[in-house]
Amino acid sequence: MSTVTPLSWLWEWPHWVPTLLPGLGVALLLTVISCGIGYPLGFLLALMTEARSKPLKWTALVLVEVGRGIPILVLLFVVYQGLPSVGILFDALPSACIAFVWSAAAYSAEMIRVSIGTVPRGQSDASYALSMSRFDTYRYIVLPQAARISIPPLVSLTITMFHATSLASVITVSELMHIAYQQGAIYFNYMTVFTAAAVIYLVITVPAAIFADRLSKRLGGVTSVRQTAFRRRRTPAPIVTGI
Amino acid sequence: MSIHTETSPTETAPDVSNEFVRAEHLVKDFGQHRAVNDVSLSVAKGEVIALIGPSGAGKSTLLRCLNLLETPSSGSLQIAGERIVFEGDNLKRPQVLRLRRHTGMVFQSFNLFPHLTAAKNVALAQMRVLGRSKKEAMDRALTQLDRVGLASKADAYPSQCSGGQQQRIGIARALAMDPDLMLFDEPTSGLDPEVGAEILAVMRALAGEGTTMIIATHEMEFARHVSHRVVVMVEGAIIEEGAPEQVMSAPTHERTQKFLSAVLGR
Amino acid sequence: MEEALGLIAAATGITLLLTVVSGAIGLVLAAPLVLLSQSRQPVLRLAYTTFVHIVRGVPALVWLFIIFFGMAELNVVIPAMPAAIVALGVIATASMAEIYRGGLNAIHFGQYEAGWALSLSRFSVTKDIVFPQLLRAVSPTVATYFVGLLKDSALASIIGVGEITYVTGQQVELHGNGLTLYAFAGVLYLVMSIPLGVLSRSVHSRITRRYAVV
Hints:
With 243 residues, chain A is mostly helical. In chain A, 74% of the residues lie in helices and 0% in strands. Chain A has one domain: MetI-like fold. With 266 residues, chain B is α/β, with parallel strands linked by helices. Helix content of chain B is 35%, strand content 25%. In chain B, a hairpin with a 2-residue loop joins strand 1 and strand 2. In chain B, helix 3 crosses helix 4 and helix 5 packs parallel to helix 6. Chain C is flat and about 70 Å long. Chains in contact: A-B, A-C. Chains A and B meet through helix 6 and helix 7 of A and strand 6, helix 3 and helix 5 of B.
């Protein structure tokens, strides 16, 4: 490839997509692993934060708050460059997996915890009034409803995790951005390759985001009649002047 | 049995010596606020009690103490021979569940399980608590739904039913557990008067069949005609109780008079 | 070791600078942007949606690289710190616009109708009815976003901005002790996010006290 003239990246970028696609595969793999393992762990953590046993509760709270409060990049470095100082060495990809799973678990735990809180108290009242045990109440009444409520935010979280995988490039995992950066460094065509990378991310993210949006509208319709009455207004409200 | 039974419950007055439910000196505190203040109540088998009083008087809390959705701070409770004394934090879960089995509750906001059909709403606890098989539970569910006139809605979801229908499903769900005592927490307060009449008719039929019921309600005419005894609660305490005609036409306590005149416009 | 910890702690200032400046850019620029989404012209609404989807549909790291590396290649050299601020600022603008939009949608249409029925001018309706309710509705979400922005600032370390993560990396290369140093950095971020949470709650309650719950 020749050196780039100021605007040539506008039409050159498609040429780079095939080179970058394997990186997309890695990014998707990381997303699937982090969410596939992270969400069930998050669910477990959410239940643990509601537990009566103090040790369980506090362990879960610490894991969640640390996982949510520390930047993912720092988590990545902690696992990849921090652990070796105490003798635990992980390769780049496993390190990334560990860090992302922790992150996904922490964020999803919080979402699930909030969803459980959103289930109206009357539901557990009615269940207990029927003499159902705490376990059965959670299993048949509370958790099914909480699951429904938590699906839209979890879909959004998955998209966020997909974006987060770009950080794995910093610890040399050979995903999309890593390949893009390497190519850019070789051919000095950063703008071109990064544009190609951006397009690839867009192609995956935008449909997913629209899907998540539709999903939350559809699932959200169950709870409030007042909301539906309000949604009937189709055109946006004019505020200052009619622009 | 359907909702068309016309027997007036007061014709079949219960035997008051047959003490079925006995609450003694129940107290419930929420922090500084005493919601139930030394309430003692005795209910005979087959008796229908109307619990009336201003909002915030503690009627709901009292009902929730009777099925242990709230744990009383002190006092004792006995239902169908099962007795618990409340002292501090000594309550064991199995005790609670055993006592609760004797009661059924119908809520002001229905509280139907939205992700289950009407039939499943009525069948779930039968299977999980009473251990009935799925077939038996569903059969009995259909019977109960039919009893409240909703056999046709067995496979509908709560969101597909009107308010009055939802409440009737709620009643069927409670009845399916064969409780000894039915508790109604302002069952018609969330409904239009027209629709409320459907519910009252179901409750009247239940009373006619000899069900032991305690009903917290604002429906004064219903209280007068369907209950055997009216209990008036104000600020957490029972200030008056007695036969409907007596309490409602000629109350002895001044506060009752005040409440009734505000409510009935007399 | 203490020297390393001290250097890392000193970098807090840069981290906060990145966070606050990008956040401020977002807060301010999102306001005119969200007006586009409320326009009666479909073209303008489409422009808004396209902008927001593109900005938020691409990871922050990619924008950062495009602005720092990409622009340099096009002979527009932007130093690391401004590049980071611009990248984070643009993303913040798009995200805050969406937050504002959500807040606007949450305002019951009846509020506008009441204002019109009272013959209030459109400007007055905006200033006295819509804006206070908008503030109240969005402040928790905006606060949460700021905490997120604090964490995103760590990305600037990748292009060499001397904030917490970058300095920590440097120190680890020089002295080892990776776990201790990175854990310390993590704790710094955690500790910084607590006051932000407290601040947001107090701002929220001050706003809700002045404008009583409808």
